[in-house]
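We were asked to recover a plausible sequence for a given structure. The inputs and outputs are reproduced exactly as logged, with field labels preserved.

PROBLEM: sequence recovery
POSITIONS: 154
GIVEN STRUCTURE:
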């Protein structure tokens, strides 16, 4: 496997791991979110499941074994009510955006376009959850915020 292909697979695997974590996190969000935002949470959950499945296929198409989901993931803070569920949803989207930013940098062609679209979708969802935007979604070093890992911490 060439170095370029290895870098692409590694970036795809990182995005897949982030999507596994997001799907898990939205399960928690769905259990605590208020009725007024439940439809939005369900739509985000479905979007992350679809991205996860597409990434797993892409990794497999490149001849690698897709990373599997962990049995559980450590949450960045306790989620006890609707307000903290909303905060978690925004955090999940920020983490996914960061990984898709890396995937954009590591790929080219149609795959880069798909990664850029996923980055945009995560950034838009983060704004909806948070109610405000950041200057450079997915680029913590440009936004002036500490980098957050989307990798699972189980």
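RECOVERED SEQUENCE:
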């Amino acid at each position: 496997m060439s170095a370029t292909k290895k870098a692409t697979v590694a970036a795809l695997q990182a995005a897949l791991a982030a999507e596994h974590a997001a799907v898990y996190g939205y399960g928690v969000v769905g259990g605590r979110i208020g009725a007024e935002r439940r439809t939005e949470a369900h739509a985000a959950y479905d979007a992350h499941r679809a991205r996860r499945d597409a990434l797993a296929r892409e990794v497999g198409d490149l001849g690698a074994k897709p990373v599997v989901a962990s049995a559980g993931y450590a949450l960045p803070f306790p989620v006890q009510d609707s307000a903290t569920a909303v905060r978690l949803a925004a955090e999940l989207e920020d983490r996914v955006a960061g990984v898709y930013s890396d995937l954009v940098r590591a790929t080219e062609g149609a795959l880069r376009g798909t990664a850029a679209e996923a980055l945009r979708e995560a950034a838009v969802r983060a704004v909806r959850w948070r109610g405000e935007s950041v200057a450079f979604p997915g680029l913590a070093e440009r936004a002036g915020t500490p980098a957050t890992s989307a990798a699972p911490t189980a």
